Structure formats: C-alpha cells, structure tokens
Amino acid sequence: MINKRVVLTIAVLMAIQAAMLAYTAFRLTPVYDEPGHFVAGVTHWQCGTTELYRVNPPMPRMVMTAIPYLLGARVDYRSQRTVTLDRKEIHLGFSHFEADPKRAMYFLGLARLTAIVWPLIGTLVIFRWSRELNGDAAGLFSVALWCFSPLILANSQLILPDVAAASLGLLAAYSFYHWLKKPTFAGAFLTGLGLGAAELTKFTLIILFPLWVLIWLLWSILEQRTLIHWKRQSLQILFLFCMALLVINAGYNFDGTFTKLGDYKFVSDTFRGANLEDVNSVGRNRFFNTWMGAIPIPLPKDVLQGMDVQQLDFDDKTSVSFLRGELKTGGGWYYYYVYAYLIKEPIGFLLILFVSFLTAHRMADWRVFSVLLPVPILIFLIVSAQTAFNHHLRYILPAIPFLAVWAGRLMSPSVLGVRMRWVAVCFLLSGMIASASVYPYSYAYFNCLVGGSENGYRHLAGSNVEWGQSGHLATYLIAKYPGIQVARGLMPNYQTDFSNVLSPPNFTPTELRNSEAAELIKRIAPGWYAIPSQSLTHPTRPYYYFVDFEAAAVVGYTIRVYYLTEDDISKWAHSLQGESGRSKP
C-alpha cells in the first residue's frame, strides 16, 4: 500500500505540472513546426492518410488533434500520394493558420491541452518504477526531476512527438523489465503493445528492438537459464515483437504493409543511391533489381518513406549549425548534444546525475542497470553521430525519464547516508528553484555555466533558445513602447495584427562598410527597437548591427529592446566611417 501522504504529494506535483503546462499552452505562440504538425494530424483523421509529416509516426498527432477534429477543425488539403523533396506540411501549416488565425489558434490551444497527457503518463511511470526500486522517497525525487526539468516544461505542451516518445518509451521499458523478471506470454503481450505504442511516437525508438534482444540474452546467460527456458522465452520475445509490429501497422491502418523494398521511391542518397546520373531526381531506389528489392517489408509504407525523407535532411550539405558563436555549413559537432544538455539543465540536476553515476558501484541489482542506462546512452550516441547538422536538443528527450528513474536511487539508504541524501535533496531544490525562476520562458533556460538565460543565445540557437514561443511578447512590446519597430522574426501574423508596425532596416556588416553605407544609415530612425537575441550571434544574422548598441531592456530572456537617439546613431555612423577608413590600403 502507498502511504496517503505520498499519494497526496504525487497528486499535488501532477496538479502543479498540469497547471504550469496548461498556462503556457495558451500563452506561448506556436513554434515553427507546430502548424505543420497540427494540419498533419487533422488530415490523418480527415483524409485517412499519414503522408503529411511522415518523418515522424502519426499517433501523437492523431491523439492531440482528435478533439479539434471532432469540434470541426478541417484542412484544405487533397492527398497526392507522391514522393517529393518538398516538406509541404510546413507551408500548408502556415497557410492554414494565416487563413483563419483566431479559429486556428483556438484549436491549437485544445490540441496543446491534450498534449499534457504525455508528461502526466511519464510522471506516473517514473514514480511507479523509481518507487518500486528504491522506495517512496525515490519515487518523489525522480518525479520532481522530471516535472521541473526546463527541457520537459519547454516541450510538454507543444504538439510535437518528443515528450510522447519519452513517456511511452519508458512505459514500454518498464513493462519489458517486468517481463524479464517473470517471463510469461501475458507479459509478452502487454510489453508488445507498449513497444508498438512507443514506436508510433518517434523513429528513434527503433533502437529498442535490437537492444531488448541483447538485454534478454545478457539476462539469460548470466542467470544460467535452462534450455527449456531458452526455448519458451525465445517464443515469447518473438511473440512480443510480432505484437509490436501489429500495433505499428494498425497505427498506419496497414497502408502499404509488405510492400517490396524494390517498389519504394526514395529521395535520400542513403536509400536512393548517391552515384546516379541525375542527383536531383526523386523516385529512385538503390535496391531495385537486386535480391534485397524482392523482400516484402512488414511495415507500413510511410514508415520507410518517412525515414527516407528524414535521412534527406541528414544528407543535406547546406544546413547551417551554430555553437558558441561559430556557424558551420553542412556539418556539426559530435559533442553538440552533450554540451547543450550540460548548459540547458539546472546545475543541481546535473550534480544529482553526477553523484548517481559516481555511486553506480553500489547498485545491488545489475539487472536494473542493464535496462535503465543503455537507452539514454544509445540515444545520445545516435543523435551525436548525426553531424550533418546540429539543431534540436529535444531529440534527446526520450533519454530524460530513464535518467530520472536512475537518479532516484540516491534516496536509497544502501547508496547514500542520511547526510548525503539531504545534500541530494538540496541539489534537487536548487534545480527546481532555478527552473521555476525563468517560467514561463523555460525554453530560454540556461544555467550559470554560460552566465544564465540572458546569455544562452551566445552558445546555442534555434529551438534551443527560442523558436516562435516569444511571439506573444510582440503585442506587449507594442503596447509598452510607442512606435517600436519589431523584428520580423517576432511577428507571427496569425497571432496579432502587425500591419501598422514597422520592422527595423536590415543590412549586413559588409553593406555598412561600402560606399553606400551613409544612405543605409539614414534609414535608421531614433526610437525603440525589438531585436531577437539570436540576431546578435554572428555577422550573417539579420539585424546583427545592433550588437554595437546597448540594450535598454531584455524581455523574456530572448528579446532585446533598444532605444536609439540621434546622438547614438551619429556616433555609431562615425565609428563605421573610421573602421571603413582604416580598412582601406
């Protein structure tokens, strides 16, 4: 039986978690690819096709858009069932939100509220598993790590699949752990359902198939199971995987299941083949007219097609990545995701993980280690291996619940003494306070290793800093600063009417140092300006010239507000002329 106080505490934590996420669900404007996910989810219901946003499985989108669809949300789209290089869901999403902004935002809010079910599922599974391993205190400790992680708070209310993958991936692993401890066909059945559901959230979790086979073999060998047990469990794990495949195919309505590999039309070099005469062509297949091409694939057609389109992004040599002031085209850094994680989570939480790994030798049951840690390690390795570009730290979110359960062991008397357990609690509280201090701008959180949230833009970019969530602040800025000119990146036209709002003039440092610089400078008028912090990280960024001015305020950690006077502009112009003169031979 669970202590009533523990039940009350977990209920309060879940209520706080749900309330925080519900508030930001309606307060924050859509991130760049949310409109695309929304229209894709609606078309799944409306047209019975999973073509849009096939780079991710459809289940999370379908769950999150079910209520909007039932209440009348529709998309003007006719499925064309063709392979194309164009990610048309992005453009369709923008046009859908621009056509009827008020209605689209209302339905998006409902979809976001539904999305909160994913982190709540994660909370329950984390508590149950951690408590089962190390007691009530461990369960609450792990849940607090999960609920107050800035990464989880920033992504849980978005209609993206990452938090769903994290929660259902952990649920599947928890079921698998119990099947390993007590193998039965009933357990294999339930675990297969859980695995199938997890695979319908994110293609990354395909690693669970080979990983679970290796873990099962490890358990069987080290526990010296008999031949009878080997045979019985071999059938059970085969049955488990068959159930998972059945769920996956059902999630796609069995569309294109058992299509031969040679009959696919691919777009990426990995699947299409790079050594073709027309490198810009689509619909090629490196397996055509080979023995592999005759193999029927026991998966829906859009699974392999989606992996192919995703691989196209990884093959792209023109993608630009940013890290610590450096831009790279067609490449990234193998340590990017580890570095990003270390500066995006509170120091207290990082210290907890450090101590939990430092005390790993005190683990009483090696079997727990074998199930919990390989998943986050593999996820970090897989995303780090993709160095064609580095963009979204949210790719590692499926690792976080496993780390939370693992860290709960610090509350076990067999791992730490009383004083050290209180130290761990202090680490936890410091991390929770640090995370809460930037709420509701959790997406902009950076720890003190890089100087805090206001300086994070100097280290990372894109969705790791701000990806559209701050759009609602433009309305606040317009009201507070009369005549303010707002950068276009802060002006989503489906949120507020910006028709009468000016945008700052945009020119590059090179343009400001040529013969026409004087004419360009005349376009800068005295007054208020709102500029995204990310524009100040590199000379190629729009509005980079504002780096020469001092901000009057910082709003939401990601927007810098400037007030330029005639004197400021004049001094700046003279300094540019001086630099231009010194640069001449």
Write out key terms for the chains shown:
globular, two-stranded antiparallel sheet, single chain, disordered C terminus, 585 residues, 4% strand, mainly alpha, four-stranded mixed β-sheet, 23 helices
Task: Describe the fold and architecture.
The chain has 585 residues and is mostly helical. Helices cover 52% and strands 4% of the residues. It has 23 helices and six strands. It has helices at 4-27, 34-47, 59-70, 88-99, 101-115, 117-134, 136-147, 150-155, 162-181, 185-199, 208-222, 227-251, 269-272, 301-315, 336-344, 347-358, 366-372, 374-385, 400-407, 418-436, 471-480, 517-521, 566-583; strands spanning 320-323, 326-329, 485-486, 527-532, 553-555, 559-564. The strands form two sheets. Strands 3-4-6-5 form a four-stranded mixed beta sheet. A two-stranded antiparallel sheet has the order 1-2. Strand 1 and strand 2 (326-329) form a beta hairpin. Helix 4 crosses helix 5 (101-115), helix 6 (117-134) runs antiparallel to helix 7 and helix 7 (136-147) packs antiparallel against helix 19 (400-407). The protein is globular and about 85 Å long. The relative contact order is 0.10. Residues 79-83, 276-281 and 581-585 have low confidence and may be disordered.
